[in-house]
Amino acid sequence: MKLNDLVQKLAAFEAGGFPFVSLYLDASANENGRDEYKTWLKTEVDELIESYDEDSAEAESLKADIEKIQQFLETEVDESANGIAVFACGAADGFFETAQLDEAFPNNRIFAFERPHIFPLVRIIEQNPRYAVLWSDTNKADIYVFGGENTLNVETEAKVEEIQNVVTQGIKVGGWSQARYQRHIANFHLQHAKETVEELEKLMRDAKIEHLILCGNERTIMPILRPQLSKAVEESVVETLNLSQYDSEDEIREKTHEAMAMQNALKDKERVERMYDAAKAAAGLGAMGVEDTLAALSNGQVEELIISSSFETIKYSPKKVKKVLKDYAPGDDNSTGDELPEVKEIRQVSDELIIRALNSAAKIVFIEDDSLLKEANGVGAVFRYNINATANG
Question: What are residue 87's DSSP bridge partners?
Answer without folding.
Answer: 22, 97
